[in-house]
Amino acid sequence: MSIRVALSHITTYQYDKSIKLSPHVIRLRPAPHTKNHIVSYSLNILPEQKFLNWQQDPFGNYLARLVFPEKTNILQVAVDLVTDLKVINPFDFFVEEYAENFPFTYDKVLKKELAPYLKVKKPGKLLAPYLKTIDKTPRRTVEFLVALNAKIYSDVGYVIRMEPGIQTPELTLSSRMGSCRDSAYLLVQILRNMGLAARFVSGYLIQLKADVKSLDGPSGAESDFTDLHAWAEVYVPGAGWVGLDPTSGLFTGEGHIPLAATPEPESAGPIYGFAEKAKAEFSFHMGVERVLETPRVTLPYQGEDWDRIIRLGDSIDKRIRKNDIRLTIGGEPTFVSTENREAPEWNFDALGFEKYSKSEQLIKRLGKHFAPGGLLQYGQGKWYPGEPLPRWAMISYWRKDGEPIWNHPYLLADDRYTGSATTEDARRFISVLGSRLNIPSKSIHTAYEDNLYYLWQEANLPTETELMLDGLNTYDKMERERILKVIDSGLHREVGYTIPLDYDVSLSAWISDEWSFRRGKLFLIPGDSPIGLRLPLHSLGGKQYYPYPEDPAAPKPSLPKAKELGQSPFLATNYSYSIGELHTRTALCVEPRNGNIRVFLPPIKSLEGWLRLIYAIEQTALETDIPIVLEGYEAPHDPRLNRFKITPDPGVIEVNFHPSSSFGEIVEKTQILYEEATQLRLTAEKFLIDGRHSGTGGGNHITLGGASVGDSPFLRKPSLLRSLVAYWQNHPGLSYLFSGMFIGPTSQSPRIDEARNDSLHELKIAFQQIDSSRHTPPWMLDRVLRNILIDITGNTHRTEISIDKLFDPGSPTGRLGLIEMRAFEMPPHYQMSVIQQAFMMAIICKFWEDPYYGNPINWNTELHDRFMLPYFVYRDFKEVIQDLQNSGFGFLSKDFDPFFEFRFPQYGICYLDGMEIELRMALEPWNVLGEENTAQGTSRGVDSATERVQVKVKGFHPERYRLSCNGYEVPLQPTSVQNEFVAGVRFKAWSPVFTLHPQIPAQQSLVFDVYDSWNHRALGGCTYHVSHPGGLSYQTIPINGYEAESRRISRFWTHGHKIGKSLPPIRLENKAFPSTLDLRMVTFK
């Protein structure tokens, strides 16, 4: 986003008497090669009686020549200019082939033209040896220039020098200090001695305070400032003049505004002239002021706006408490790494070493803030079809009543480091634990690897197995590595120990067993997972004992105090004796792995039982002095226990955050989460290779419910869910403003009317059932909507509003009273996340007070026509804001401008004869293609080849003009503003291997013309390039938002229209999509 700034520069000479002034030359107007857009410029001179002529010197610089006919006691030069600071990539240039590598020689014609800039002064006694220290190894020219610029920066210190003139290179090198002009002149002389044409540049330097402080170095200016500056420019064939600033060691960017560029510094001075002898008082003032700032993700809100939003959130909080809604809000924010953006684990793979390491650091950092006396467990995460192993999950627990769960943090081993624990330590640990649980030692079983299986597998291995691993597919490679790992550790040794264990809620007792196996010993199922996941349960005889699960909706008593957990003796019952053929099929396991003792927790259905087990484990670790790592099954879901966890998802890490019950909690938690993630080089944003900005791709789903199932506002007032579903369906802007790039019927959060054609009819019938029932039982709400709020495959989770955790009668974990709003992409700034949650709080409060009974609207193709355009999305969203304002919630539409700018970045604006043409990114649903058979199985590709842009024109008169794109008329639709129109242009941006229309070529550029029907020709226009217009093929994604913005800006030109007289643009009729020009339809015309 550009920032418009105003620069003020006033230089004053106050004389003690009236004197004569010679003609003066002023070089304080931005030079013609300035890359910034200069919005306005003014030069004011005192005395007022003078003659001013604008000229250009032999090098193209602007000069103001002043003649003073009368004596004066003052000379004041005042400059005021306004400029747009847009990010400029200093490396975005083309280099001629012969000059790609240094050293090179200019061709004869060019060398003659550059003669003034190649003139070399004989090096002095210090410069000559210094030139020998410069690395002249042949390499890319850009790399040489970067290294040389950095060398001057490191060798010459910066000093403010008020004396006039330029130091010689000898003086600069002798003192190793110099002002900006001294370092620039030194660099010019060095470049010329290297055979490169160079010139001296004087200009303005504008530096603005960074929105976000840097973690890796200086963050730049502490406040906005400007000053006169100097740097060098070197001529690179193809690229032209390239700016090098030795004072900072950087190439010049948007903050450098050149005023004069000349072969010698004497010709670049800002003010040149003479005055009659007199005493003079010299003063100057320089300042820069931000005039216009568009909201941006690094600074979405100014201070006063954020304070108002905080007050608004607090007022919504009070209203929610007044209405006794008992709302809690949780979320699933996702993050990616800033250090290794190209790695598969941060793009499409679910697992990765760096992802695991950063997740572990993050959960420990967050645990210090949110989990006092808490416990960290390394559990098992989700296991999706096609994945060889379950994913990991790191879970942090703590009690809501403030009592500690774990009192000795040093007894939790650090999983990042390898310890020295042995099998004997594991045996000793489980023996003491068994005694604490009153479980007889004969119930402890030793676990072994299956000798016969691995010996058979070893016989089938090739001779040089290790050398063959690289050529295997994923599954075979993992299997071979697993076999080698197990064989290397030994087949006949003990690998761990188990205790059959469960907890009976009705008896408040531990249930144990004596397992027996036909082979006499417990041989594990082959693998390298924790032994708790490899128990041969299928080898056990008899029937399985199933403890009665607790109802999550049942009222819960207070938990015992931490010190009370060990006061009463642990009871143990052996069901093998008391009930005969019933057997316990769950077990606690202890094993050494990676040098640490791992304790695998069995699934415990009761929180009291789970806490007692954790207490016994901690006391055992304390008695044996053995630090442990906890893994295994999660603690039971219980409103008395808080938890958050970090899990891996494709390309991201996901933080399943614990719910907040107040707005103050939301602000605190969200800010801490983002700040701690930033410290670990984790970010909430990604960039596509063409510079488009997006969230992480993993979403930021918002979970709504209550502190307990009974407190859930959706179960206490079923009309609330009915209102939410109907309102979201009636307002497509809510579905698309906050969502990610992947939208449509096969996305992760499809709208209900993007799935089955008859879904709206069925939804209407469901609404009738809810509306007609005075007392809707919780299970009925689930049954009525469960098979409607689904995607096209029937998945109840992958939908815009998911109710699979609301009240599913068939699943205890599905009866949590929660709904999940899934059409929310990860906001890049914590303040944007906070206002999203405040928005949802206001929506829930509004519908609690005044239920919404609107019927479904059949949008037909409008969803993927009008509502793909930013204008219609935001117009619809403003209606939502108006509804909230009418209900007493003080949101402003500008509060969501950061989301608009993030979701629909501006590509550029063109001004033409009183008209304005603006291009913005628009939405495009991605198609999922047909099945493809591969070596790994059957898959369906996602076609992201098609893109869409919105074009909006202001001051446009359709009676005379037509807007065309590549010769075809754009179907402009009127907006609510007179002479303002908007439309979408759909095109194929690239050609992937699998795509919907493989025969249609990708577009190279979109040329927009304003066609004048009176004169039968194009009046002018602009051009949007689908890829870099200079043929620069990016191989890596942008490293930050600055580079991403520069890539977007480089693809928009404010020129390029059809030449000469022509026929009117061709009109295409498309009744299904009247707001969109689909260029794919005209490719073969």
From TrEMBL:
SUPFAM superfamilies: Cysteine proteinases (SSF54001). This is Transglutaminase family protein. It comes from the Bacteria. InterPro entries: Bac_transglu_N, DUF2126, Papain-like_cys_pep_sf, Transglutaminase-like. Residues 172-248 form the Transglutaminase-like domain. It comes from Leptospira noumeaensis.
